[in-house]
UniProtKB/TrEMBL annotation, chains A, B:
Coiled coil: none annotated. One of its GO terms (biological process) is fatty acid metabolic process. This is Long-chain-fatty-acid--CoA ligase. GO terms for molecular function: ligase activity. Keywords: Fatty acid metabolism, Ligase, Lipid metabolism. InterPro entries: AMP-bd_C (IPR025110), AMP-bd_C_sf (IPR045851), AMP-dep_synth/lig_dom (IPR000873), ANL_N_sf (IPR042099). The keyword Membrane does not apply. It comes from Rothia koreensis. Residues 22-407 form the AMP-dependent synthetase/ligase domain. Belongs to the ATP-dependent AMP-binding enzyme family. Residues 457-531 form the AMP-binding enzyme C-terminal domain. It comes from the Bacteria.
């Protein structure tokens, strides 16, 4: 790394989470934070009051002994206190650990232990989740989050303290010290399907820069209203509260919500005139149904919903826009990217003219990398592929808020390479700069040095109206390395022939890409959580061939 | 500074100027850069081509021996090459020094020598300016910027090379190395009225963060068109090209322009559909006159012009808006703040309702601090004043892009205090967070522990239609420390009495604030560049009193 003349600018001024909140509280003190409590009531506060509460909270935690280097777990919904902990804990140079309350209990126990959490904050409604880990080694005590007096709360947890009671006598100004910017402000664990969850520790610097990029990419400012829809304990939300506070936006916190509360979210989006929210197809699909069920659906013109997790179905994006005027913006990210890496907002004016159909198709792409993020797709030898929309490879990402290792997991070092994170996603970059992901890398079929997308082929097979399900896997081949094999499940009472499948595919795929074999089957193997189990299919196929 | 757990995010990924340009060139390669050459012709290029030219330029400079730690001066207009140098020089870990071609020749010589510039780039049209410094010690050679073949250029400069010729054979990809982010990317010198110019060295980190904040505050993105109106060698422009490139905005470069070219600027703003520009009252006032002179003034709705230097007159802001629909946004900054610190864009929705008059009045304030900037006004003992719109003090600023020292000027250490830069400007912060500057600190009258604004009082005196000019100074007073004295120049043929001035002031000012003395005078002393010379007035007054 080259070093030149040393500058005279404030280069030792650290990027700190506290500064984001202080800026909002000092410059936009009256801007609202609207939150829903456990009883379902909506309440209103503002940045001035929140900074005072964060100060009291930092005072209380500090008095408990929480300080630099401590890991503090949080089990909570999208509550006011959760937002406050986002700032109170990092403000002490401690690290706030997100605990995903939907993790399998065994995995949750692993996360608490592996992260060496010394204190865990638990919302009163989640005490049963916590109590399963009452003997977690290393935990000095449990901090209960509740509006109730402590004598109304029963729990089997040992060493319990009550945050609101601790806060009562703390002063409204806490003397926050500067925190070295590479200190971890937050920790989160992946919820991967294989192996134990892996932890990422996010620095103050990373989250400050991520906030600045989200603010500019998603056009946030103090006149916007942000609703944090996706659970704050889930990666899809992690970097959003900081961006909303950094922009000093008006914030709406829906508290605890479950599937049956979709109407509450849907009403609040309209009533609070939300302009930016986050979401996922699993939330937005029932929300659209809810709006459809209303005699008069609301006008949500001006609302953008950043939608991650998986590519939103066209019918969802189009239906939402047509019914409400609200826009669903697809974005891509992961635990390893804090979480945002690419977003598909306004089209650049330099794109050639498109038909409406082409435009909707492009809206399903993962979008363009945000300022600060470098992306490339690389072949198996690590060579970057040209931006031609055809040359597929694994997506690699680097940047100031992209992970370069997992916390205390030297066994996972091969997920990182030269400062790049290997996403495990396969796709292409188009001439217009757009990223289009197709498969998880492990589902791509590598044949004769070229890649065949299993998902593209499955979608093509599904165009046959008699087909209920399709799965394309790569099977070992001595000459071509791998060859595709397609499994097809007909709809009930329908018949599907191998030839009809092949004929359809031959219209779209080159001859060398066509499946070696098409297997019509009554059902496909699935994992315990209902996902297609392609690994199982590959093993079954191989063992049948060798019999 | 507290240090906690070390994060696992990419915290060693340095913030580099090259990354801004690479992001634009990779993701928005076709977005245009429109530039006007010395002949006055407009030409079009794009980010793809510009990155190739910056690469060739870096190759050429590197071959000359320019590298880490070198200072490279630039004497140029708002040209394409000037923009390219903004990236080619810092990309080599060298520092690009802005040379203000309007500086007095002696000061320019001082800057070249004090900065230890080893190479100086000069546009062919500015060779006479450079030739006055042909013997500058430390300069190894002069790099001529021109589209002409070298044999058509005559100069008395020694050791001359021609940049375009050096670039010709360089490859379109330069292997840019990472630059440590605290390395100085740019240098600029203040043009203060007292003493020698003082230098500030701006780090890659500072300018990257400044760019991100300007992008979000001024709502820049790839669908905006930015025109760099203020000279790129002037502090009011320094941080703007980087922000425009970081946002991958379409950029319009008007090249060399002088007062008589105001029509060219005005036409380009309209024809190129510019949405963001920078400017100053001295540019915008004649521009408004130009638009007024047209039979059909253009519709500039959507255009925002960030206007610094001094508070734009209400008549200018209002006139511009009414005639063209374009908006003038006042912003505040300085060489020491890279340059932006506060901006007065959209009003926060939390402000109480205002009459149109009140709204226009608020538009003249310096605005709200941008994300990343801390401001305070402090009394003479350094105590921060409350945000009440009344308690005046000196404006102090700190943040990642605010200077913490001057380059090799230990004699100026008292301009900085605990990481804060002392701006020398006096003003108040209002309850709504807005900064309102009133005076240069040296012009404030400190009386009995309170401050009296000389500018407020001057403006009040000017409300008398018979008054041509007014100046209020503070004179020493044994009891009150200072007392105000007002000088009044009547308009030609008019008479102004002391009593009429006092009567008018008594309506607006408290009794203790009223001037000790009102002196009606035919003219006021001025400096060589025409500014009111209050120092002279104070000296004259004091010596007259002691006679």
């Amino acid at each position: 790394m080259l070093e030149g003349l040393r500058a005279t600018t404030g280069d030792d001024y650290p990027l700190n989470m506290t500064s984001l909140l202080r800026h909002a509280a000092t410059t936009f003190p009256d801007n609202e934070i609207v939150y829903r409590d456990l009883n379902g009531s909506w309440n209103r506060t503002n940045y001035r009051e929140e900074f005072a509460r964060v100060s009291k909270m930092a005072g209380a935690l500090s008095r408990l002994g929480v300080g630099a280097g401590d890991m503090v777990g949080v089990l909570d919904w999208n509550s006011r206190r959760h937002l406050e902990l986002y700032f109170a804990v990092p403000g002490l140079a401690a690290t706030m650990l997100q605990l995903n309350l939907r993790l399998a209990s065994e995995d949750l126990g692993y996360v608490i232990e592996h992260s060496q959490a010394s204190w865990v904050c638990v919302d009163e409604s989640l005490l049963p989740v916590a109590e399963a880990h009452r003997d977690a080694p290393g935990v000095k005590g449990w901090i209960v989050l509740s509006d109730k007096p402590s004598d109304q709360i029963e729990t089997t947890l040992p060493n319990v303290v009550f945050l609101e009671e601790l806060m009562k006598d703390e002063p409204e100004e806490y003397p926050f010290e500067w925190v070295e910017e590479k200190t971890a402000a937050y920790a989160g664990y992946t919820t991967g399907t294989t192996g134990r969850p892996k932890g990422i520790l996010y620095s103050h610097r990373a989250m400050y820069l991520h906030s600045m990029t989200v603010i500019s990419s998603e056009k946030l400012n103090y006149n916007e209203t942000v609703m944090l829809v996706t659970p704050m304990f889930h990666v899809m939300c992690w970097g959003f509260p900081q961006a909303a506070v950094g922009a000093a936006a008006r914030i709406i916190l829906p508290g605890r919500w479950q599937a049956q509360d979709i109407g509450v979210l849907a009403e609040a989006l309209a009533e609070e005139h939300v302009t930016l929210a986050n979401g996922a197809p699993s939330i937005l699909t029932p929300m659209l149904e809810y709006y459809r069920s209303l005699p008069t659906p609301p006008d949500l013109t001006g609302l953008r919903i950043v939608c991650g997790a998986s590519e939103p179905p066209l019918s969802l994006m189009q239906g939402f826009k047509e019914l409400t005027g609200g826009e669903i913006i697809h974005a891509y990210g992961a635990s390893e990217t804090s979480p945002m890496a690419t977003t598909n907002g306004d089209f650049p004016h330099t794109l050639p003219e498109m038909s409406e159909e082409e435009a909707w198709d492009l809206k399903r792409y993962q979008g363009l990398p945000m300022l600060g993020v470098d992306i490339k797709v690389a072949d198996l030898d690590g060579n970057p592929q040209p931006h031609d929309g055809e040359s597929a490879g694994e997506l690699l990402i680097r940047g100031p808020w992209v992970a370069t290792s997992y916390y205390n997991r030297p066994d996972s070092a091969d997920s990182f390479e030269d400062g790049w994170w290997r996403s495990g996603d396969a796709g292409v970059i188009c001439e217009n700069g757009y990223l289009k992901l197709t498969d998880r890398l492990k589902d791509v079929i590598k044949s004769g040095g070229e890649w065949i997308s299993s998902i593209d082929m499955e979608n093509a097979i599904l165009d046959n109206p008699r087909v209920a399900e399709a799965a394309v896997i790569g099977v070992p081949d001595p000459k071509w390395e791998e060859r595709p094999v397609a499994y097809v499940v007909p709809k009930e009472g329908q018949e599907v022939t191998e030839d009809s499948v092949l004929d359809l595919l031959a219209q779209r795929f080159a001859k060398w890409q066509l499946p070696e074999k098409i297997i019509v089957s009554a059902e496909l193997p699935r994992t315990s959580v209902g996902k297609l189990n392609k690994r199982q299919m590959r093993e079954d196929y191989t063992s049948e061939q060798s019999n």
